[in-house]
Amino acid sequence: MRIFRNLVLAATLFSTLPLSMAAQLPTKAATAAAAATSKLDINTATPDQLKAIPGIGDAYSKRIIDGRPYTAKNQLVSRGILPQGVYDKVKDQIVASKVKK
Description:
Elements: H1 2-16, H2 19-24, H3 28-37, E1 40-41, H4 47-51, H5 58-66, H6 75-78, H7 84-90, E2 94-95
Parallel strand pairs: 1-2
């Protein structure tokens, strides 16, 4: 029943929007693709943002923040911040951007 109600609501919403506005609404696929391509900068991320990455908890997020700045994300391993296994799991989700002075 809830699914049917949501479909009716969505159909009503789309039918009342001008075509140009309906075409601009983000699709689930576009939203997921944008989220997948955005990487977290380890030089500027907050503790909560770091902890949102699977494998990074309170201790690792604190160590990452305390070790800043990084010129490359692989410094997390070379400096002993993260073990290689954890780094291998998170390396595709992070980036180390240049620090602006």
